[in-house]
C-alpha cells in the first residue's frame, strides 16, 4: 500500500515501540534520582515500591509513571520546624494505609480490582443504600479514574484499594447525609422547624456593627429562610429607607426554592408604614405572598409557597402606645438579669392574674391585635396591614399560656431580645455551641431550610401531653460511631498554625445533643506529631429520642501549656445519617466549611 510493505510497517512499529520504552526507562531513572535527592533519607522501602510498580507500568506509559512517583513523593514529604537559631526538627509526613475496615470491605467484594458491578453491591449491601443504581457506581469509578489517573482510564475501568479508599474519603462522592430534599413538604408551615436568622443585616454585634447586604446574602446562601430587618424613620422623620429589599429578592432562592419569611421590626408611624407597603410591593412584586383574608386560619405549605416571600410583623397600632410599651419593656429588662422571658415552664412562678392584668393595662403592645384595632383603626395603614402574611405577637404572662394554640388564627410568638442579650453575656460559649447545633440540624432535608417536626412533637399522648423531653424513656436505637482518621489540615493551615516546634497533636470529641437523657460527649486519645491522625476508635450512643438527636463532632489540638487549639467541628442530624463508611467534612467556628479538612468515619445503627 503506497509502496510500503507489511514487513516495513511492522519494522517501523517495532522501532517506535522500542523508542517509547527507552524514554520510559530514561524518565524512570531521572525521576528516581530526583526523588532520592528530594527526600534526603534512606528510603529503600520506597525505592523498592517504585521499582516494582514501574516494571508493571513500563508496558503502559510514562505518564502513569510520573503520576505514581508524584503520589509517592506526596505521601512521604518532610516537615521542618526551627528550634532556636541553630537547630531544625524534621518530621516525615507519611500518608497512612487504608484502615483495616476499609481493606476488609474491599476484600469482601473483590479480590483484585473493584468493577462498577462490584462497587454497586458494596453500596447496597455495606453502605445500606438501597436506591443505588449501576449508573451511580459507574459515575464514581469514572470520577476517580479521571481524578487519579490520566491514561489508565482508557485501559481499565475498576478501582484499586487506594482508589477505593480515595472514594470513601471523598465528601462529594460519599457524604454522611443526603443532599436532596427527602421529607414531605406539603404540610402547613407550622409543622416544620424553620432556619431563622437574627439581626440578619448586621456585620457584627447589635451595638457597634454596620448594616450591610453581605450578611443577608451569606445567610440566604446558607439556607436561612427567616431574615430579620429593622425599619426606622430617616433623620427627618418624614421617610424611611428600606436598604436590603433588592438583596433579599436577588438571593432569596439561591440555596432553596422554599419560601423566605422577612420579619420586620417596625418602628414607624402609620403614614410611613404606607410608604413601606408601597416600596415592598414594588420591590418584590409577584413574589410577595399575602393572604386574601385578614388572618390565616392555617398556614399554607412550603411546597405551595415555593419562590414566594412572606412578611411577618405585628399588625399596625397606635405609634405612641407601641413606643411607650417598648420603653417600659427596656426598663424592666435592666432590672432583671435574664429579662421576663423564662424558657423552661417548670421554672416559672405561678401566674398572677392581677399582675398579668396590670401589665396588659399598661403595655398595650402585648395585647392581641383585636384588642387595639378598634381604638387605633383610624391610624392604621390598611395596605401595610394587608401585606402581613404572618402576624406576630409578644409573650405575656407565663410561657405555658403564651404557647396555647388559637384555633381561629395562626401567628408567630416573639420573645423579647433582653433574654438573648443577657444570655449572650453570661453564656457566650454555650451560645456558640448552640449555633453549631442549629447549623447541623438544618443540614437535614437537603439543607433547604425547612425540617419537618417528628410525629412525637405533633401528637398528644394519653395524658394530653405532646412531648416531655425530661420523661424517663427507653432506648429506641443505639448509634455506633467509629472515627478512623482525619486529613486536610496540612492543606488549609500553615505548618506552625497549631505548634511552632512540631506537627499537631490532634484528638477528636464526639457526642450527642438532644434530650437530657441522650446528651453525652466522649473523646479519642491524642495522636502526637501527626498531620494525618489515625485514631481507629469506636463509641456507642444509646438514644431514647433519636428523632431529636444530633451527632456533635469536634477536633482539637492538644496543648500542654495553653488552651487546646480548635481544629474543626460539625453536627449531623442522627435521623438522616447514612450508614456505612463516610467522609465527614469539618467547619470552622463560624460554620463555614474548610476546603480540605475531613474525617473518615463509620456509622452503624445497632
TrEMBL record:
Domain PI-PLC Y-box, residue spans: 435-457
GO molecular function, one term: phosphatidylinositol-4,5-bisphosphate phospholipase C activity
GO biological process, one term: phosphatidylinositol-mediated signaling
Main localization category: membrane
Pfam families referenced in this protein's UniProt entry, alphabetically: C2 (PF00168), PI-PLC-X (PF00388)
Bias (Acidic residues): 344-359
Protein name, UniProt field: Phosphoinositide phospholipase C
Organism taxonomic ancestry: Eukaryota, Viridiplantae, Streptophyta, Embryophyta, Tracheophyta
